[in-house]
Design brief:
Number of strands: 0
Structural class: mainly alpha
Order of helices and strands: HHHHHHHHHHHHHHHHH
Largest sheet: none
CATH topology: Growth Hormone, Chain: A
CATH superfamily: MFS general substrate transporter like domains
CATH class: Mainly Alpha
Oligomer: single chain
Helix content: over 70%
Length: about 400
Amino acid sequence: MKSGYSALVPLVGAPFLPLTFFARLPLAMLTIGSMTLVTATTGTYALGGLAAAMVGLGSAVGGPSVGYLADRFGQRPILVAVSLIHSVLLVLLTLLGASGPELSVPLLVLMCLITGATGPQVGPMSRVRWIAMTRQQQKNPKVLSAALSLESMFDELGFVFGPVAVGLLASLVDPVLPLYLAAILTLVLVPIFATHRTGNVVKPVAGAKSAPKVSITRAQVAAISALVLGMIALGTVFGSSAAGTLAFAGEQGNSNQGGLLYGAMGLSSAIAAISVAAWPQYFRQINRWVLCGALLTILSFGLHLASSTPWMVVALFVAGFAVGPVIVTVMTLGGEVAPAARLSTVMTMLSAGIVVGTAIGNGLAGVFADSLGYLGAFWVSSGGAAVIFLAALAMKIIVAKAPSLSRVR
């Protein structure tokens, strides 16, 4: 573990690590920030869930599209452009969401869609840089494992600090503040990330005079589909847990504190993610996914049993330990399965899958929370966890039957 992590700073420079974390924080704030704002100004969980769902739907199309453009033309110009557009749209979405009961639902849907579609894909782009650097310099596999574990920890800390920041700012100041802060962070930090020297290791396909045609096998398509399904299911767990926790906090007296409670899951998930680099190499990636999917399914029922705020925090914290390793494992498998010339596309598809799933979870759980209370929302969480497990089993079967995927562990 030590050798893997100790090689990271010399590879990228110390400033890169906090930069890549804070540059991705706005996207972690967007879904729950829009849901919190619309819920607070309209008084309905269902409309708040709709806003979050449309953000995720936009990201489902926009995220992989941004990744494809980065593969074609390079990360720098694409990230700079989308950071400027996204910052403006965040401000417009906040102004619209704050309009209260007079809020135009069709306009809200449109704004959420295009805001989600233009989100800068900092996390996937950072992972692509790590994969490219470690491959070019033929680093020990432990270095890439440590890098992807660190990336997943940053994602999880984003899921901690994003909702916590939203909860604190919404509760103590105003529900509009989280999205304004996200706009400022995007405008300042994403262009710095875009122009960082690590971006030079990722060569755009369009720049090559004789770029080979990218071919992808049926086995690769099936494997990538299983990976994306796993990420959508994981996002569904995130979204439904967030909505359920929001509804639970509402029953306890203050729905704006939902983000604070939900942060417990992200905290334990980050701890588990950073530990993955120390797991033995003979513990295959796919088997890790199967085990953690089964554990998460079981642990999700703890959310059904918690009847007070302290017990809810405990249930979320315990369940989170099965989450972080799933992200590390799926992203690692994505890097092994994806064609080199479409690495950014596949990585953004996986990250978009989390956002899409979060939106699905927010939307379904928001409706169930309105009609059945917070327990209805947590049934969506348990269902999502079961799909993670089933996707892992599907991936295991696909790899076992495809000789071309023999390198995949």
